[in-house]
């Protein structure tokens, strides 16, 4: 089985621009979560999508948004980029979760640099 | 309010010795705890987990211990190998909330 793929792997933008990141989950996985990793900040949860609906959301401003398509692929968008948005953005997919934990499989991430 | 904390940003051990990585949490609603390993330029990979109803789970060289009264868990790697050098993230899952909370990570270096 192919793993989680993320595109692009690297991205350089300037302040004020917007960016869209893409994530393709493992085949059969319907839950996709997004995380932001910055030095010394660990992995901060952005949001989770399941069956095209946002099911959970972290504490990020409204500039961060996402969506999920019918094939479970997900996109994340950041508008009006700020310098502090420079980070590694990780996507993780898992099987449909009910009320128990399902192992998350992470992609390699997209390294976003905002100048 | 950081609900999952890894107080040691880095740890260095000699090959063959034991590595002990620690993690503290504050939310008693967490019911699963996990450790992930991350190499540079790769996403985190799942290593080992433990349910809140257990106090120990072992998988080969890796053992996770959970002390619920102290809200503390630890990952033991015995014996440590140079290939274990990576960033280790502790994560806690709240079934009611349906999401995982990660610590900041500990960089483990195993010296040959």
Compact description:
The complex is a heterodimer of chains A (115) and B (112). Helices cover 0% and strands 50% of the residues of chain A. Chain A has 115 residues and is mainly beta.
Index terms:
heterodimer, A: 115 residues, mainly beta, seven-stranded mixed beta sheet, four-stranded antiparallel beta sheet, 11 strands, 0% helix, globular, B: 112 residues, six-stranded mixed beta sheet, five-stranded antiparallel beta sheet
**Coarse shape of chain B:** globular
What gap, in angstroms, lies between the N and C termini of chain A? 37 Å
| Main sheet overview of chain A | 7 strands, mixed
Taken as a percent bin, the fraction of beta residues of chain B is: over 45%
- Cα gyration radius of chain A (Å): 13 Å
Helical stretch tally of chain A: 0
Strand count, sense and closure of the main sheet of chain B? 6 strands, mixed
- Number of DSSP-assigned strands of chain A: 11
Furnish the topology, listing elements before pairings.
The complex is a heterodimer of chains A (115) and B (112).
Chain A: E1 5-7, E2 10-13, E3 19-24, E4 31-37, E5 43-50, E6 53-57, E7 64-68, E8 74-78, E9 87-94, E10 105-106, E11 110-114
Parallel strand pairs in A: 2-11
Antiparallel strand pairs in A: 1-3, 3-8, 4-5, 4-9, 5-6, 7-8, 9-10, 9-11
Chain B: E1 4-5, E2 10-14, E3 19-25, E4 32-38, E5 45-51, E6 56-59, E7 62-67, E8 72-77, E9 86-94, E10 99-102, E11 106-111
Parallel strand pairs in B: 2-11
Antiparallel strand pairs in B: 1-3, 3-8, 4-5, 4-9, 6-7, 7-8, 9-10, 9-11
């Amino acid at each position: 089985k192919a793993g989680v793929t993320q595109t692009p792997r690297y991205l350089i933008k300037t302040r004020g621009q917007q960016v869209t990141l893409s994530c393709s989950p493992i085949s059969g996985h319907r839950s996709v979560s997004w995380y932001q990793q910055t030095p010394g900040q660990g992995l901060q949860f952005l949001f989770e999508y399941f069956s095209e609906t946002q099911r959970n959301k972290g504490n990020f401003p409204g500039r961060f948004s996402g969506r999920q398509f019918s094939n479970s692929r997900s996109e994340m968008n950041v508008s009006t980029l700020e310098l502090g948005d420079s980070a590694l953005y990780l996507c993780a997919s898992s099987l449909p979760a009910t009320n128990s934990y399902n192992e998350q499989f992470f992609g390699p991430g997209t390294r976003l640099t905002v100048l | 309010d950081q609900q999952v904390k890894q107080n040691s940003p880095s740890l260095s051990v000699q090959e063959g010795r034991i590595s002990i990585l620690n993690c503290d949490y504050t939310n008693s609603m967490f019911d699963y705890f996990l450790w992930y390993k991350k190499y540079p330029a790769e996403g985190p990979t799942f290593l080992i987990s433990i349910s809140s109803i257990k106090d120990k789970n072992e998988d080969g060289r890796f053992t996770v211990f959970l002390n619920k009264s102290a809200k503390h868990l630890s990952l033991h790697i015995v014996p440590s190998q140079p290939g274990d050098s990576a960033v280790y993230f502790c994560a806690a899952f709240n079934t009611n909330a349906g999401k995982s909370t990660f610590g900041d990570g500990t960089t483990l270096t195993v010296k040959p």
